[in-house]
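U., I forgot to send this yesterday:
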Amino acid sequence: MGAEDAAGGGMRSPLAGKRAIVIEDEGVTQLQIRRALTKAGIEIAGVALNARAGIDLVLRERPDLVLMDISMPGDIDGLDAAAAILATFRVCIVIVTAADNDERRWRAKKVGACAYLVKPILSQPLLQELERSYDEWTRGVSNEYQNVPPCSSH
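Result:
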């Protein structure tokens, strides 16, 4: 059997069979991310439209990956949600946001996010970064984005 995915000729990802949660309030972006993940064989374990709902969903479903926006409706942002999740559950959280600034990158790194991707992002680069980040996270390898062990609970 080849590396082709039966659902449209896309390449199967090493992450095929993993479970992911998408926490994103913008419908078009959420749909694009869900399609890319599904095409790669990654199961969508759930979707949340705000940070608080995302925290509850992640802690209930216990996925392998979380893709998290920063700016969403509600009283906390995606970085606060990432910190709350990582305080009790070890998971690879990838920030996917339009907010490309040093302060937010620093906060994401500090809370333990595995990667920081800037929207818009095409499916193939998204999947490549997810594969790299998840692989490094599972092996405990520091990367250029993060210099501390991911998802430590203090």
